[in-house]
Amino acid sequence: MNNGTTKKCLPGLGARVKELRQRQGLTLQVAATRGGTTPQTLVQLERHDLATTRTLNCVAKALGVSVDEVTGRKAGGQ
Length: 78
Hints:
The chain is mostly helical. It has five helices and two strands; from the N terminus they run βαααβαα. It has helices at 13-23, 28-35, 39-48, 53-63, 67-71, and strands at 8-9, 50-51. The protein has a two-stranded antiparallel ribbon. α2 crosses α4 (53-63). The radius of gyration is 11 Å and the shape is globular. The model has no long low-confidence stretch (mean pLDDT 90).
């Protein structure tokens, strides 16, 4: 059973997250604190497109967007 701790590779995820984070002027530390995760987790996500369900939720919370926007299922502003 997947309890949200299995890392999945989502191509393009890291670039989207980094772009959203930088557009808001957030450092890795600030984004991690806002989302309730660690800067190291965000680095891994941004560099390797790897994330757990929990991490996706943390990132979406930190950036004030939906998980669908983070994953690219929904373009921003729509």
